[in-house]
Specification:
Blueprint: H1 11-20, H2 33-47, H3 51-55, E1 64-68, H4 74-81, E2 85-90, H5 93-105, E3 111-114, E4 127-133, H6 142-151, E5 153-164, H7 169-178, H8 189-196, H9 207-213, E6 218-225, E7 232-233, E8 237-238, E9 254-260
Helix pairs in contact: 7-8
The structure holds S-adenosylmethionine.
Length: 275
């Protein structure tokens, strides 16, 4: 019933959606860019306060970091602030321009470019860390993007990727609104999410499907996180944080996947390296 292969959104449609307004900017309006940037950071901390635990910004200091799908650039800014050697890509010029101007307003640098997660323009083994938060479920060929993330990591390098969870409260709510309420009980969660969740063709994965995307990596961990989006009415009314405890963890909207590119024979992995 939830057949991800049936997803036919084109990359142009995905790009057009995100280029119109970089992710997370619709509820922010301050000028100049330094104030706008602070507003985006405040919102980020309110809505996704758990990111720091996964992104592990401090650990990226001095490391070659690639962020795939920078969006409005809030996490990228934080990697740059701690002294990571940053590279960032996004499918859309507007995300790259906004991220660049936010970095410039703080005198920070990154090698930022418009590129496609499915065909990353970097040699094998280029980066120590690849980070991608809420991106590869939007691209038509998600398995290709996952393969690219591992390819550009050096052996022993680590990735952190967030993708949506299909067996979640958010998916159920979306289905109730767009399928059940219209009497279409046979419509799948996947079909409803592809049509009504952010850019056209958005996908969401079970734990097993998530693991399959990164088959072959070392220490693969999938953690499911309950988010403010799970306890929201409409787009902007978020229920108090205490209500998040009512949602069993496995029904949270975010799967966070972390793992290590296997070291080649005779090569040291991250955990064996000198600090
Ligand atoms: C939900 S936003 C997330 C942005 C940012 N990582 C964040 O957490 O706010 C999704 C982003 O993925 C980008 N994106 C979608 N498909 C992509 C692809 N094939 N290659 C690179 N970026 C892509 C979009 O342009 C958009 O900026």
């Amino acid at each position: 019933m939830d057949n991800l292969a049936g997803n036919t959104a084109t990359k142009d449609a995905v790009g057009a959606y995100w280029n119109a307004a970089p992710c997370g900017t619709r509820d922010a309006s301050s000028v100049p860019v330094s104030e706008f940037s602070k507003e985006l950071e405040r919102q980020r901390d309110e809505r996704e306060p758990f990111i720091a635990r996964f992104a592990n910004f401090e650990q990226a200091r001095g490391k070659k970091l690639l962020e795939v799908g920078v969006g409005a650039g809030t996490d990228h800014l934080r990697f740059a602030r701690v002294g990571a050697i940053c590279t960032g890509v996004d499918l859309t010029p507007s995300a790259i321009e906004l991220t660049r101007s936010r970095l410039q307003s703080e005198g920070l640098n990154s090698n930022l470019q418009v590129s496609d997660a499915e065909t990353l323009p970097f040699d094998d083994g280029t980066f120590d860390i690849v980070y991608s938060w809420g991106v590869i479920h939007h691209t038509p060929n998600t398995p290709k993007a996952a393969t690219e993330i591992v390819r550009v990591l050096r052996p022993g390098g680590r990735f952190c990727v967030m993708i949506y969870n299909r067996h979640s409260l958010v998916a159920l709510q979306t289905w109730l609104v767009y399928a059940a309420a219209k009497g279409n009980l046979t419509r799948s969660f996947s079909d409803v999410l592809a049509s009504h969740m952010e850019s056209p063709g958005t996908k969401a994965y079970t734990v097993g499907e998530s693991r399959a995307l990164f088959r072959g990596v070392e220490d693969l961990r999938v953690e499911t996180v309950v988010t403010p989006y799970d306890m929201r009415i409409g787009r902007r009314r978020f229920l108090p944080r205490a209500t998040h405890n009512l949602v069993p963890a496995r029904f949270g909207w975010f799967h966070v996947l972390q793992g290590t590119r296997p070291a080649m024979r005779g090569e040291k992995s991250n955990s064996e390296r000198d600090p």
